[in-house]
Amino acid sequence: xxxxxxxxxxxxxxxxxxxxxxxxxxxxxxxxxxxxxxxxxxxxxxxxxxxxxxxxxxxxxxxxxxxxxxxxxxxxxxxxxxxxxx
Length: 86
Fold this sequence. Notes:
Radius of gyration: 20 Å
Oligomer: single chain
Number of helices: 6
């Protein structure tokens, strides 16, 4: 979508999509999803933020098993266990 948005003023949406071999309806479907994401997409975005926070607090040392274990804990216990007050 970013490329199309960058080039649409210069070439128009449909010619750019044609070169990329993307259906116009697909592009507008992506725009609609971005404007009004499903509950699952919103939950996934929130989860991605939590994962990034846990990874950052660990100094980048926690891998997926430890991050997963931290996610199973209540939020207050996560930060207490990591030694952070945030």
